[in-house]
Amino acid sequence: MLCKICKTKGKREKAVINLRHHKLALCKEHFIEWFEKHTLKTIEKFKMFSKNGKIGIAVSGGKDSLSLWYLLTKAGYETVGIHISLGIKANDYSEKSLELCKQMAERINRPLITFNLPDEFGYPIEKIAQLSGRDSVCSVCGTFKRYIMNKLALKENLEAIATGHNLDDESAVLLSNTLRWDTGYLGRQYPVLLEKGGFARKVKPFCFFTEKEIVSYAILNEIEFMETGCPNSEKATSPVYKQALALLEHKMPGTKLRFYKEFIKKARPIFEAVNKEEIKLVPCEKCGTPTTADVCSVCRILEKVKNAKSREN
């Protein structure tokens, strides 16, 4: 298969990727150009951030976040990587993830801020989940990551925190929330979550790209990344929704992109209007972070951990 753009220029360059839902086969040069152009177009369309501020990239060591950090730095944005080391020992997961983030920081000559969760809170994420009585490590992990990222964003005076969430992630979350008709989450799902009441701005520049497209960009740019997922993700429900959508996508290319784009355009404003009542935020009594309760979710979890250890002793 030949590159579609090269063919229009009278060249016969072999395509390295076939984007079925775009009916577009591209060579290495034109795919990278297409990918970067559309990322910057998304940033501009949703007014995610400017060239004047400092952008924090939440880097995990995976293909999505490292590719995003690489691309935004290449595009001239002032970036800083933020990595949360969770203390996951299995397969040396946390150690390897941190090393890959350090390699990228060195390659693009940008700073990397590292937050070591076991050092700061006393235990790795699995132990915190266990002691707090939670069945899902993933839910606890997500809660702590959001909490830490927000604290660091405010401390570092970042214009926004950019995450590597992709189309597969966003469409899976959308399907899950739609099946449960969770109007609260449906009203908030969007490529940009504006800064508000002590919360930093969060953005998703890769939200319209599939995992296949991002991994292709990473490989073509020789970006090293973790090829295995988190050992704790086995009990996560998102892979089930991704599998269902992958089946639809295989039969009908473009299903995921249409599902997500049409939601943003037509349905999300309706759910946003349903949830237009302002949520009252107050400072957490223990740490000061914005919360809807007297004590934030992280401090409540940490209190349960403390009580559990007291009973053990």
UniProtKB/TrEMBL annotation:
UniProt domain 2-thiouridine synthetase TtuA-like N-terminal LIM: residue ranges: 3-32
BP GO annotations: tRNA wobble position uridine thiolation
Transferase as UniProt keyword: yes
Top-level taxon: Bacteria
Occurrences of domain tRNA(Ile)-lysidine/2-thiocytidine synthase N-terminal (ranges): 55-227
UniProt keyword annotations, A-Z: ATP-binding, Nucleotide-binding, Transferase
Protein name as catalogued: TIGR00269 family protein
